[in-house]
Amino acid sequence: PVVRAMPNAPSTVHEGMSGIAPGRHADPAHMAVASEILGRVGRVVEVPEVYLDAVTAISGSGPAYFALLAEAMIEAGILLGLSREISTQLVVQTMLGSAKLLRDGHMHPVELREMVTSPGGTTIRAIHVLEQSGVRAAFLNAIQAAMKRSQELAEGTPD
Fold first, then answer.
1. What CATH homologous superfamily does 62-154 map to?
2. pTM, rounded to two decimals
3. DSSP codes of every residue in 92-139
C-alpha cells in the first residue's frame, strides 16, 4: 500500500505542513500511520490523491514564496536606510506573528489585512500599489504553474 505525502521545509523545525493522500490499496490504518509520523514534525491534512499536486504547489513550494517576499521586504528596509540585521528582524518577526494570528487567532487573511489598514494610511497605499502591480494575479498564476509542473513530474515529463 502507498500513501503519497508532501511535507514542506518547515518540518525541519517542527512547524511543517504535510498533505497526504491514500493510494488505491491504502486503508485507514495506513493513513493513520502516515499521519502520526508526519504529525511529529507539524500538521497534516488528508486530501484525495487528485489534489496532492495542489498541495505541492501551495504548501510544498510555499516556503519559497514566503522567502521571496521576505527577501523583497528586507531589501526594501535596506533601501529605506535600515541595516540588513534590523530589516531582517522586522520582516521575520512580522511574518511569524502574522502567521500565528492567522492560525492561532483563527483570523481570515482579509480580517488581518483590514485590521492593520486604515483609510488614507500607509498600509492602504502600499496595498493599492501591490494590487495595481498585479501581485495577487502573479501568485495565482505562479501557483497554478507549480501545480501543472507537479502533474508533469508525476507523469514523468522532463523539463
1. ProC C-terminal domain-like (1.10.3730.10)
2. 0.90
3. HHHHHHHHHHHHTS---HHHHHHHT--TTSHHHHHHHHHHHTTHHHHH
